[in-house]
Automatic annotation (TrEMBL):
<dbReference type="InterPro" id="IPR003593">
    <property type="entry name" value="AAA+_ATPase"/>
</dbReference>
<keyword id="KW-0547">Nucleotide-binding</keyword>
<comment type="similarity">
    <text>Belongs to the ABC transporter superfamily.</text>
</comment>
<dbReference type="Pfam" id="PF00005">
    <property type="entry name" value="ABC_tran"/>
</dbReference>
<keyword id="KW-0067">ATP-binding</keyword>
<feature type="domain" description="ABC transporter">
    <location>
        <begin position="2"/>
        <end position="235"/>
    </location>
</feature>
<dbReference type="GO" id="GO:0005524">
    <property type="term" value="F:ATP binding"/>
</dbReference>
<keyword id="KW-0813">Transport</keyword>
<keyword id="KW-0029">Amino-acid transport</keyword>
<keyword id="KW-0472">Membrane</keyword>
<keyword id="KW-1003">Cell membrane</keyword>
<protein>
    <submittedName>
        <fullName>Amino acid ABC transporter ATP-binding protein</fullName>
    </submittedName>
</protein>
<dbReference type="InterPro" id="IPR030679">
    <property type="entry name" value="ABC_ATPase_HisP-typ"/>
</dbReference>
<dbReference type="InterPro" id="IPR017871">
    <property type="entry name" value="ABC_transporter-like_CS"/>
</dbReference>
<dbReference type="InterPro" id="IPR050086">
    <property type="entry name" value="MetN_ABC_transporter-like"/>
</dbReference>
<dbReference type="InterPro" id="IPR003439">
    <property type="entry name" value="ABC_transporter-like_ATP-bd"/>
</dbReference>
<dbReference type="InterPro" id="IPR027417">
    <property type="entry name" value="P-loop_NTPase"/>
</dbReference>
Length: 244
């Protein structure tokens, strides 16, 4: 379980997260919605320890991320896919995927490569195993990024706006992979502006506004007229997103 308890984060005088409480249980797909600057990506970065907390606590399967030993264990439980791919440009797709399992998990190279090829095959990229990031499209690079995360066999997959840098066709490629993962029971915390996709795959929807958690509701309830839509700020956001 990921447990976020009264988390606060500030950058100078700017409060980005203000007392956020959230729990993600194994098997859930939780989508985080909200306008740009609402704290969504910062929350993901706090969970994986890329940002230090200014208040509250985060635990991943009981491991506190503000403790060095706890953070190491938490990172073994979580894997993050970023919006800008972050692949190593001097490594092939296969090498990008096998690096962490070999170095961190001490997986034998042959086993790591076999598992990486199986992951690439599952996303339709087996024939591109030897390609470098510069030789791949944006959608292909993001699919490699997802494989790299899954290669660590994480309990929790953190996804930060993974389609924001892609065109519509590439976005569809990546969303199809994520829908397959959601259907297989992968636990995901998914920051996105893809409203209809969030409605389709999520067990719950979380809405952040100005660093505060404004709603945490089952998906059907979030989109119901007497649920999330009853809150003017959420109704305004969804209306604007439907027109964009």
């Amino acid at each position: 379980m990921i447990h976020i308890d009264r988390v606060a984060k500030r950058f100078g005088a700017n409060t980005v997260l203000d007392g956020v409480d959230l729990r993600v249980d194994p098997g859930e797909v939780v989508s985080i919605l909200g306008a740009s600057g609402s704290g969504k990506s910062t929350l993901i970065r706090c969970i994986n320890g890329l940002e230090k907390l200014d208040g509250g606590a985060i635990t991943v399967d009981g491991h506190r991320v503000d403790d060095p030993k706890g953070l190491r264990e938490a990172r073994r439980c979580c894997a993050t896919v970023f919006q800008l791919f972050n692949l190593y440009p001097h490594m092939t797709a296969l090498e990008n995927i096998t690096l962490a399992p070999i170095e961190v998990l001490r997986t034998p190279r042959r086993q790591a490569e076999d598992e990486a090829r199986a992951l690439l095959d599952s996303v339709g990229l087996l024939e591109r195993a030897g390609a470098y990031p510069s030789q791949l499209s944006g959608g292909q690079r993001q699919r490699v990024g997802i494989c790299r995360a899954l290669a660590m066999k994480p309990r929790y997959l953190l996804l930060d706006e993974v389609t924001s840098a892609l065109d519509p066709e590439m976005t569809a490629e990546v969303l199809a992979i994520l829908a397959k993962l959601a259907g297989s029971g992968t636990t995901m915390l998914f920051v996105t502006h893809e409203i209809e996709f969030a409605r389709h795959i999520s067990s719950r929807i979380v809405f952040l506004d100005g660093g505060r958690l404004l709603a945490d509701l089952p998906t059907a309830r979030f989109f119901a007229p007497d649920g999330g839509l009853a809150q003017p700020r959420i109704a305004q956001f969804l209306s604007r997103m439907s027109k964009s």
